[in-house]
Amino acid sequence: MSRCSLRLLFLLTLQFAPATAGGQASAGLVLGRLHYDGGGDWYANPSSLPNLARAIRAGTHLPVESREVVVRLTDERLWSVPFLHATGHGNLSFTEAERVILRRWLRQGGFLHVSDNYGMDESFRRELVRLFPDQPLVPVPLDHPVFHLVYDLPAGVPKIHEHDGKPAEGLGIFLDGRLVVFYDYQADLGDGWEDAEVHRDPPAKHEAALHMGVNLFAYAVGFAGAGP
Question: Residue 28: which of 73, 64, 77, 78 has the closest Cα?
Answer without folding.
Answer: 64
